[in-house]
Amino acid sequence: MNDQSTIRGAVHSDLQHDSAIKHVTGRATYTDDIAEPVGTLHAYLGVATETHARIRKIDLAPVRAAPGVIGVLTAEDIPGHNDISPTGREDEPVFPTDKVEFNGQPLFAVVAETRDAARRAAELARIDYEPLSHALDPVAAQAAGYPHVTDPLTLSRGDAATALEGAQNRITGRMVVGGQDHMYLEGHIAFAVPGEDDDVIVHCSTQHPSEAQHMVAHVLGVPSNAVTVNVRRMGGGFGGKESQMNLFCAVAAIAAKKWNRAVKIRPDRDQDMTATGKRHDFVIDYEVGFDDAGRIQAVDGQFAARCGFSSDLSGPVTDRALFHADNAYFYPHVRLESHPMKTNTVSNTAFRGFGGPQGVIAAERMIEEIAYALGRDTLEIRKANFYGSDGRDVTPYHQTVEDNIMPRIVEELEAGADYQARRQAVLDHNAGGGIIRRGIALTPVKFGISFTATWYNQAGALVHVYNDGSIHLNHGGTEMGQGLNTKVSQVVADTFQVDVDRIKITRTTTEKVPNTSATAASSGSDLNGMAALDAAEQIKARLIDFAVERWQAEPSEVRFLPNRVQIRDEVIAFNDFIKQAYMARVHLSAAGFYKTPKIHWDRATGKGRPFYYYAYGAACSEVEIDTLTGEYRVLRTDILHDVGRSLNPVLDKGQVEGAFIQGMGWLTTEELWWDEAGRLRTHAPSTYKIPLASDRPREFNVKLADWSENREMTIKRSKAVGEPPFMLGISVFEALSMAVASVADYRECPRLDAPATPERVLMAVERLQGRGAS
After folding, report:
1. What is the DSSP letter of 504?
2. How far apart, in whole angstroms, are the C-alpha atoms of residue 325 and residue 363?
């Protein structure tokens, strides 16, 4: 018998991911699992073998003559606009016509009866190039006079130059921060089915169905209403499927309409990695002034990014790097500048944190520099510089930090992780000398939540209540394994006070909810949860009005109980109540909408409130390194993270765990490497090393700050969880730095570049030892 005192799947309760069993049993349906109509064709990309060159001639005759080939798509076959730039800058052609901008750039697509035939034929093109000089990183691009791919941003408050001149202590340094491949389990894929007139349906793995819809319409030269984009689920996204899917959707749709047959395109992992963008590499030049107590007086930061050949999302990514270059610290005087450099590499794109991690790690490097210069514990310096009151609460972009819970987070983690005693044990261990050295670090994260492009902070949802009491839910967010659909269904279940099993979660489709924002910026639950709540509340209000009229009751006498409705003293099963409402012609469907309040941003002045609120967290990690080989392992990590009043604690905890490991991978094992010719050599799991299960901390303790409640009116007072915990991995990077510093008695900041691979750790150890240290 069901427990009638509560519902299954209420908000703030643990609920298993709706597709969890399907995931582990292989029954979850992805784009590649959709049954192919008879006559389905397959496409594959033909790519450039030069890094920067003029195209003299392309001979595709051998391609067209290959077995199974139906035809080839080039720029000439695009009926609309040859551009898929997500920002409308018209700098990203589907296929270039005169110049190659990076090694691996798609030049054409082969369409064949089978995927294997298309893949083999793509290698047969004969292309005559006129090679040009190239620049592969932001420093080389600056030296070569390359342009910015988008306008730089400057954030300024106070007088940084004067304050630096007058500072008691000054340190200048440079930090190189590597990029990262998304390495989603499911690669890019698009499957287009032509319809009548201009119509085409595109099934794909994208975080941004509306953008894919608009891009397909753009290249076909048709209105958006002719294009339907469907996404049931993705096998991971992490930002890599926000804009990068545009190319594959466009190619599939163009081919489908040209030959009037269904067309699927799915690149191999190698081509997926060489042809699509990654996390931006940064070269960060910093100068920090501080007093003898370790308090920062002024900061100047120059953030040069490897953006690739086109703008893509590099503008907002490099902006957000500056927004987070303070992390949790107050800078009395500050000047930060971005330099989004064009390079002859694949156009980099969104990745979990969207530039924020690169900003945060710069802040942590400056804290580390101060601590080693003064001979102090890095945590002591962090605490001295936290945002506080008395004017120490304004960011470099002039937003006031109103919800600061960082001191409490760090205090609780410091005690819970037994940081002080363990740090002393690390110091004692290292004092004994020896090959194995240890390090420990406790690092914070303060992360702003909202799209910095204000117009993206909106969402829609559609809720139907059928006359049998079952509920259909659709919203504009996409499910990529993070549990968004589960959370939003809990919101709807809680509103009607029915078991979550009643709610049917349906695929994201541009047919039902238009003009959706990408599922990104950690705001999937914030936006879509509120939109679904709005829709459910509209229907609920109509049901209350019906009950008031039908039973001659007051609104206060109508109560939604678990799976029942009470009107005065009468209690009716939810199903029966809905049936009666239907018979009375009550409208049982509603479109919900939400837009984030309070936010505004003036990029020209570098001032505003780009973030609705902040999420906070801290991690304490302990590591040990082998000073003869540079190899290391993470001994223990303790995390305390703020998700407000969690919608689903077990899902949020899983997000924190996964984000930490992914962040740790970015800073340790994951290294992107281009050779001098501009070829990406780390283009497969065999050469690109994501963390393994064996790389996880030997002891891994993760807690949510269950006392936290968002002070802003978010969905059920929860906070975003997708991106903020990614930066908790910096604690591992900082702990490795301490272990290296021990070989020189902690007198010097090791200045590790990221990722801190074993090779880099070893070179840093040898560099410090070579300076006469013991």
Report:
1. E
2. 6
Number of neighbouring beta carbons within 10 Å of residue 267? 23
Q: Give the integer Cα–Cα distance in Å for 746 and 541.
A: 65
263 vs 37, 115, 491, CA distance in Å? 10, 10, 38
Residue 390 has a pLDDT of: 82
Rounded Cα distance, 437 and 764, in Å? 13
Residue in the structure block whose two tokens are 């390194």: 625
Average pLDDT value for the chain: 97
- CA dist 616 and 767 (Å) reads 36
Residues annotated as catalytic are 723
Task: Tell me the residue type at 740.
Answer: V
**Encoded amino acid at 404, one letter:** N
pLDDT in tens, 46-56: 999 999 999 99
Kindly give, in sequence order, each residue whose CB lies less than 8 Å from that of residue 166, ignoring residues fewer than 6 positions away.
289, 297
pLDDT, one tens digit per residue, over 406-462 is 999 999 999 999 999 999 999 999 999 999 999 999 999 999 999 988 999 999 999
Cβ-based neighbours of 219, under 8 Å, separated by 6 or more: 78, 79, 80, 81, 82, 83, 84, 94, 250, 253, 254
2 has a pLDDT exceeding 90: no
Q: Check pLDDT > 90 for residue 170.
A: yes
What pLDDT digit, counting tens, does each position of 710-764 carry?
999 999 999 999 999 999 999 999 999 999 999 999 999 999 999 999 999 999 9
CA quadruple 761, 767, 773, 774: dihedral positive or negative? Answer: positive
Q: Is the pLDDT of residue 3 over 70?
A: no
**Nearest to 733, CA basis, from 636, 634, 655, 659:** 634
How much is the pLDDT for 1?
Answer: 37
The gap between the terminal CA atoms of the chain, to the nearest Å, is 72
Across 616-631, b (16+ Cβ under 10 Å) vs e yields bbbbbbbbbbbbeebe
Sign of CA dihedral 80, 82, 83, 88: negative
Mean pLDDT of 505-516: 96
Evaluate whether 646 touches 222 at the Cβ level (below 8 Å): no
Beta strand 200-204 with 227-231 is parallel
Nearest to 208 by CA among 79, 87, 47: 87
Q: Phi and psi dihedrals of 625, rounded to 5?
A: -125, 155
Contact 203, 190 (CB under 8 A): yes
Residue given tokens 């582990």 in the structure block: 24
Task: Return the axis-axis angle of helices 524-551 and 574-583, rounded to nearest 10°.
Answer: 70
The reported pTM is 0.97
